[in-house]
Structure of DNA-directed RNA polymerase sigma-70 factor:
Amino acid sequence: MSDRSAGSTPVTDPQGRASDAARTSYGRLLAVLASSTGDIAGAEDALADAFERALTRWPVDGVPRNPDGWLLTVARNRLRDGWKSAATSTSVPLEPQSHERGLLDDVDPDAIGDRRLELLLVCAHPDIDPAVHTPLMLDVVLGFTAKQIAAAFDVPAPTVAARLGRAKKRIRESRIPFEIPDRTQLPARIDAVLNAIYGAYAIDWPTAGTQVRDGLAEESLYLADTVAAMMPDDAEAHGLAALIGLSTARLRARFDGDGRLIPLAEQDTARWNTTLIERADDHLRRAHALRTLGRFQLEAAIQSVHCARRFTSTTDWHTLRALHETLQTLAPTNGGAVSLAAVVAEIDGAGAGLAVLDTLNAPRFQPAWATRAHLLAKQGAFDEAVVAYDKAISLTTDIPSRRYLEDKRNALATSVGDERDPEHSRR
C-alpha cells in the first residue's frame, strides 16, 4: 500500500490539516471501522495509529487530496495486520470470518455519515448500562476525552474512563450489532442519542464560534438534522434540531475581530444566519404540530424569541419569562434558573433578578456569579459587583469569556475608584 495512492499536495501546515481531519472526520472514520469489526477499542487504536502516521508522513509527502481516504486506508491496514497477527498467534484466537470482512475496501469516506448514527445507537444498546450511554457516545462518536466528559457530568475522570472501558469491552464481547434498530426499539434509544448530541454542543459552546471548533458545531447540527429526518414524528428530535440550528445561527456574531466575547444583547443581528434561523423555525413548527412538549422544544422556543430580534429589533421579554418558567418546571437546571433571573431582571428590575438567584444553591456555578455581578452593578452595589466579578473570573476557563469579564470588572473598579477620589477623576 502506498500512502500517496490518493494523490497529495504540498502544504505549509500538515499538522494543522491532520488536526482538522481529527476534529471533523474522527467520528465518521471510527464508525466505519468499528462497524466492520465490532471492536471499538481496536478501531480507536488503528485510527490513532493512522493519525500518528499522518503527522510523520504528511510533512514529507504532502497532504493527500483525500485526507479521510488516506487515514481510512492506513487504519484499515493496521486492523488487517492485527487480524493476521491473531491468526498466527497461539494465544490470541482469530475471530471467525475476519478475513471475509471486506467492507472496508468498498468504503467511500465521503459517504459514511449515517454510520455515525448507527454507532450512536450501538452505544445506547439496552445491554449497556444506561448511565454510560451518553458518555460513551460523547467519547466514541463525538470525540470528547474522559476528562471533558467528567467535567460536564461532575464525575471524577478516572471513574468515567473505567466506565467507558467496560462499555467498549461489553460491545465487543457481546457482539452487539452495528445497525439502526427497527422502529419498535428505536424510541427506547433515541433519548440517549439526543442527549449526547446536545451534550456535545453544550460542552463545546463556549468556544464553538472560534475557528478552531467550527467543525464540531457543524457536526452537531448535521447529526441533529439527521435524527429529525429519521424520526419525523419525534417532537424532541425536531426540538433539538431547532435548538442547535438557532444557536449556531448566532455563532459568528459572538466574537469581535479581536476574539472578544459579545453578549447576546449587544450582538449585531445582521451577522446572524437567517437561513439557519428559518430552517430551525421550521423544525420548531413541526415539533409544535406534534403536540408533545419537551425540554429541547422549550429551549428552542427561547432561542427563537431571541432570534426574532433579527426581524423585529425588539425582544419579547414577557414571552421569554413564560417559557423559562415552564422550562424550569419541566426540566429544572442551574443554567435555566440563571437565565430566568436575567429575564426577570429585564422586566421587574435587578433586585427581582437577584432574588431569583438567591434561590439557587450552586456556589461554584460560574454563570450565576457573572449574572450576579451584572445585576449588582445595575443596582448600584459596585463593591459587591466587583467581588462577584472576581469570583466569576476565578471560575472561568474559556478565554474569550474571561477577557470579557475582566474588562467589565476593571471598568467597574476604575469608576468606583474615580467616585471615591474626586482629585483622580479630575486628573
